[in-house]
Amino acid sequence: MHVSSEIFAEKSVNFAELPSLRAENFPYSGPHPWLDQPDAPEKIERKVQRGELTPAEAEQCHYWRENGYIILPKLIDEHTLDEVWRAYEKAVETGAITLKPELASENDPYPGRFLDPHQKVEAFCKILRHEQLLHWIRVLMEREPEPFQTITCHKGSQQGAHSDSIHMTTYPLGYLTAAWVAFEDIHPDCGPLVYYPGSHRLPYLFSKDVGISEDEFKARKYEAYHEKYEPRIQQMIADYRLAPHYFHAKKGDVPIWHANLIHGGSPRRDLQLSRKALVCHFFVKGSCLSRFVRVRNKAILRDVSAAHTGITPCVEDPGDWRYDRALLAPFQGPLGSRYSHSIVPGGL
Ligand SMILES: O=C(O)CCC(=O)C(=O)O
Ligand SMILES: [Fe+2]
Fold it and tell me: What are the DSSP calls for 61-117, one per residue?
């Protein structure tokens, strides 16, 4: 499949002139991802007629448009999963990776999550660059995926419901996808991933919308999100009567979700049950990613700046993997409310 890597925002941004990478400093810019646009159903059918999509892919595209996720049963084979997890456990044993306890209670037998294990255990790249997985993201985004983050877990995260766009925002908006890989059969009591079909069609909600200023984020970090953002998401779930779905996966099943799908980790009803999984986050070439942008992604910033303005990037020092403080602030502001389509309360 041919997909373009060119910078594609409709409006250029001079990164060097922005006071910070927050959405209120950005122009509103499309294009919205093709499956979020009003003519997507016709476009899907045209692609089938031209042989660019198989009927099965077209069905998944319609499903994505409607629900904000797709599920790919048994996408990753057992052998690969076992080999990758063994390599991960070995890195833990040898001390290459140290897992924090993140105990849910005293009798919680499992360690906490680990960010970016693929940087320590190369085997994870077999999944992060899995050809079929990348193919599906190309289908959904019409763009070349750019893997940038992984998270492993032995147990349910119990993470509050959220849209990934609050933590990882792309410019233009909507070009983030997440793939969640089940490394074992998922028991209903282990705290499965919970998601709200159709919630991706609601307006994006950013920090400013919920009253989190740059200073507050610097001072309070995630406390501010627990206190101000997560209750607003719960309110949206109630207002729009969104129904929770639980991902009772079989080993090797992979859901991919939309940048704005509301999801989280449901409560662990039985703490003795594990939930071995890997989350992979992608954006696409030609877009830029704010928040948790690491120095390696400066190349993208540089491309965007150079293409549009000829200005050098606002951060330096390639090869340094520290979080870049200048890029930590989330986008916020009017992008969400101007998003192309929304849903009616109770209309799902
Ligand atoms: O694994 C989970 O429970 C949630 C993970 C998640 O929300 C994410 O990585 O974006
Ligand atoms: Fe998430």
Answer: HHHHHHHSEEEETT-S-HHHHHHHHHHHHHHHHHTSS------SSTT--S---EE-G
